[in-house]
Specification:
The chain is an alpha+beta fold. It has ten helices and eleven strands. Strands 1, 2, 3, 4, 5, 6 and 11 form a seven-stranded mixed sheet that branches. Strands 8-9-7-10 form a four-stranded antiparallel sheet, with helices on one face. The longest helix is centred in the middle third of the chain and has 20 residues. Bound molecules: L-homoserine (HSE).
Length: 318
């Protein structure tokens, strides 16, 4: 038996105006993905344990990691028996790139175990196929950050293009998770509330602010990143799905948060902060939700690396 064990991090997508394009890998939490391969076996199986495992489908066709595994097996004509063990550390359905962490971890594991030497873009394309199983669309923002780490920017034409930039090391993220019920297939629901077109005026706002975020990462300027994280299209539509959002944002900004927006499809929200103010921003955001009668929890994390190999047992044949 050969195997690899991969650490696959959570991520926060969109960062305000970068809907379906921007994401940032988080240092914590993360999934642990083990891929075992038996040359003489013949089945593909998926096991899920850890945070929220009971709500995650285990059938290969419905599990996002299973979908990615099947895509690798077919694309590269891989033979044998495959067992995928998914130990969830990233809670599902909270807007923290949980399915993407699993998809990215499985893609990374296949690439390592079979020495496929795929490019970043090829890995992202394959990992994004798993997002269809959980979110209904092959959006590649979260999987890019989870695979490659840091800040990632996805451009989709016929083929996908992915850029990654190391975030400023002093950047901190407060992640606040309101305790509200989320519908099944939450991301699909959160995409259905979005407008199908925007005015030219709104487009100019979104493009200019998204550019500021990207330039901020490229220049290592937290203030540019924060000033750019103002989204007048997606946040406006989705904040209605998050009771307490407006109060939480108001309290966070009053306490010195540099920026505040929805994490991916929500319901979690993120606030940017510097080191000396992070706890205050976190507490104030939670208080804002409480004022609206919504319980919330949260944590502070740095931006993180992409998928990494934790362990491996590989023998390559001559
Ligand atoms: N960009 C996606 C969305 C991320 O906002 O719907 C979902 O995790």
């Amino acid at each position: 038996m050969q195997k690899v064990v991969v650490r696959a991090p959570a991520s926060t997508a969109n960062l305000g105006p970068g809907f379906d394009c921007f994401a940032l890998a988080l240092e914590n939490p993360y999934d642990k993905i083990t891929l075992e391969w038996q040359k003489d076996g013949e089945h593909l199986s998926v096991q899920v344990s850890g945070v929220g495992a009971q709500s995650i489908p285990k059938e290969v066709e419905k599990n996002c990691g299973g979908v990615v595994a099947k895509a690798f097996i077919q694309r590269f004509d891989l033979k044998g028996g495959f067992k995928i063990l998914i130990e969830k550390g990233v809670p599902p359905a909270l807007g923290l790139g949980s399915s993407a962490a699993t998809c990215a971890g499985v893609a990374f594991a296949f690439n390592e175990l079979f020495g496929l030497n795929l490019s970043n873009e090829e890995l992202v394309e394959l990992a994004a196929l798993g997002e269809v199983a959980s979110a209904g669309t092959p959006h590649a923002d979260n999987v890019s950050a989870s695979l490659l780490g840091g800040f990632t920017l996805v451009v989709r034409e016929e083929k996908i293009k992915v850029l990654r930039i190391n975030p400023p090391p002093t950047l901190l993220l407060c992640v606040i998770v309101p305790k509200i019920p989320t519908p099944e297939r939450k991301t699909e629901v959160a995409r259905r509330v979005l407008p199908s077109s925007v005015s030219l005026k709104d487009m100019v706002w979104q493009v200019s602010h998204a550019s500021l975020v990207a330039a901020g990462f490229a220049l290592g300027e937290i203030q540019h990143i924060a000033s750019g994280m103002k989204d007048i299209v997606v946040e406006k539509a989705r904040s209605a799905l998050i009771p307490g959002f407006d109060l939480a944002k108001e309290e966070a900004l009053k306490s010195g948060a540099l920026a505040f927006t929805i994490s991916g499809a929500g319901p979690s929200v993120i606030a940017l902060s510097t080191k000396d103010n992070a706890q205050r921003v976190l507490d104030s955001s939670i208080n804002g939700f409480l004022k609206a009668g919504v319980q919330a929890t949260g944590f502070v994390t740095k931006a993180g690396k992409g998928c990494t190999l934790l362990d491996s047992k590989i023998t390559r044949e001559e």
